[in-house]
Specification:
The complex is a heterodimer of chains A (271) and B (180). By secondary structure, chain A is of the alpha+beta class. Chain A is built from four helices and twelve strands. Chain A has one domain: Thrombin, subunit H (Beta Barrel), CATH 2.40.10. The chains are: A alpha+beta (271), B mainly alpha (180).
Chain lengths: 271, 180
């Protein structure tokens, strides 16, 4: 009986503390403490994240496999470079740069960017998200797109704190990006994630002609997302007679597990 | 007192760093390991539930700062899991033994996973109103759960082995009951 009363008191105290935490968080009294905690832990998390990235690579580190991975990465980089080149030519741009660095790419699209380190990810296994070490203090805003150093879109900002932000990856169920295919008709659609395993472009009108290998880019219809950010390549097309729209499975050019640096795109002249 | 405080600080933030920055990058199913939950159950069983409650509050608060879920979701999930574990310990698995540890780890993993799945489903439903998507998520989630159970049970077994060599806090159950 005594134990039961004591345990009931402890449970009540726990409930009160949780409610107090929520209340203090909502009225922003806890913000300084939250900022201190995230700010202080950031640098440690960066180091540990890099170490764990290395550990993950060591798992695959057999001599012949390492060579194959390196060759694979070079081929992927070539594909991205060639796709970007194809993107430039397809949109009839005058400039003739073939090996764009990230800065040049964003300047042409009237954007600034913020380089960020990835410090963690997926801590609750409910969403495919990564945590980066830049936040409100660095001008990061909700729904800003996030790209790799090669200019490939990987996600959008879904939560912003003073010193850190959370990026929802494009292969997550809740991710939606307005996109278009780089073909003659600039076919539009919505790119959505699939259970963290892949991405699909949906709502493609049946009258539109798309082929495997077409490059998919952002359409620029979203407020903070500039156009022509590469999303991936059409891998497979699904065109069921009973469906109103066709769908395309998209293959991304990047491995979501190996991201350590990202660029947060800040579109200029947007409030 | 100071040494104890420092010890608690290192345990709390060390495991947080491992959970947030180290484990997600590990290959394959190892990325599904929930070191916070396993540690919580271990502390609750070996020491006291109220100590685990304090640890859970702090861990939950910091994990909420790094989670895309609404604030306090993880604190609530951890506390609810701990409460279920407490009730099971109090009424069913009443002794401190290896089997109790395994049983509580199993039940806690299932409860915590279910709570996270509920959060995820509510968010998906709120955004898409698509029940089929939730059903598919449930199928994928159940595969994750099996891996989590396997890894969490393995981890807690290893913890038990390491701890048992240096402590008598665990009862000998089903072991050498014949008096000589």
């Amino acid at each position: 009986m005594l134990l039961s009363n004591k345990s009931s008191k402890l449970i009540l105290i726990a409930l009160i503390v949780i409610c107090l935490l929520i209340f203090l968080h909502v009225i922003k009294v806890l913000s300084p403490l939250e900022n201190i905690v995230t700010g202080a832990s950031k640098s440690i998390f960066i180091s540990i994240y890099r170490i764990s990235n290395e550990l993950g690579s060591v798992y695959l580190n057999y001599d012949s496999r390492q060579k194959l991975l390196k060759e694979n990465q070079e081929l992927r980089d070539n594909i991205i470079d060639l796709s970007r080149e194809k993107s430039v030519c397809s949109t009839e741009k005058e400039e003739n740069e073939f090996l764009r660095k990230q800065l040049n790419f964003l300047e042409e699209n009237d954007c600034d960017y913020q380089l960020a380190n990835v410090i963690g990810k997926n801590i609750d296994n409910t969403q495919n998200a990564i945590i980066v070490d830049k936040g409100e203090k660095h001008g990061v805003k909700l729904t800003q797109p996030v790209i790799t150093d090669k200019g490939v879109l990987i996600g959008k900002i879904v939560k912003v704190r003073a010193n850190s932000s959370i990026v929802l990856l494009i292969n997550d169920d809740l991710s939606k990006v307005a996109a278009k295919i780089q073909n003659q008709t600039a076919t539009g659609g919505i790119v959505e994630g699939e259970y963290g395993l892949g991405i699909k472009m949906k709502l493609i009108p049946k009258t539109e002609k798309i082929i495997e290998g077409d490059i998919v880019v952002t359409s620029g219809l979203e407020k903070y997302t500039p156009a022509e950010l590469i999303i991936g390549q059409v891998e497979r097309i699904t065109n069921e007679p009973e469906e109103l729209f066709q769908e395309a499975s998209i293959k991304s050019f990047i491995e979501f597990d190996k991201i350590t640096f990202v660029n947060i795109v800040k579109k200029k002249n947007v409030d | 007192m100071l040494i104890k405080a420092i010890k608690h600080f290192f345990i709390i933030f060390g495991l947080l760093a491992i959970q947030v920055a180290l484990i997600p990058n590990l290959p394959g199913a190892l990325a599904k390991f929930n070191v916070i939950l396993v540690s919580l159950i271990f502390i609750a069983t070996v020491y006291r539930f109220y100590l685990a409650g304090i640890y859970g509050m702090v861990w939950g608060f910091v994990l909420d700062l790094y989670s895309p879920l609404p604030f306090a979701a993880i604190v609530v999930a951890l506390m609810a899991t701990l409460y279920v574990a407490y009730k099971v310990f109090e009424h069913l698995l009443t002794n401190k033994s290896f089997y109790t540890l395994l049983g509580l780890a199993l039940i806690s993993t299932i409860v915590y996973h279910l709570l996270c799945f509920v959060y995820s489903s509510v968010r998906i439903f709120n955004a898409t109103r698509d029940l089929a998507l939730i059903k598919q998520t449930a199928i994928f989630s159940s595969n994750d759960l099996l891996w989590q159970i396997a890894i969490n049970l393995t981890a807690i077994s290893v913890l038990f082995l390491v701890f048992n060599f240096s402590s008598r806090r665990f009862n000998a159950v089903f072991v050498d009951t014949i008096k000589t």
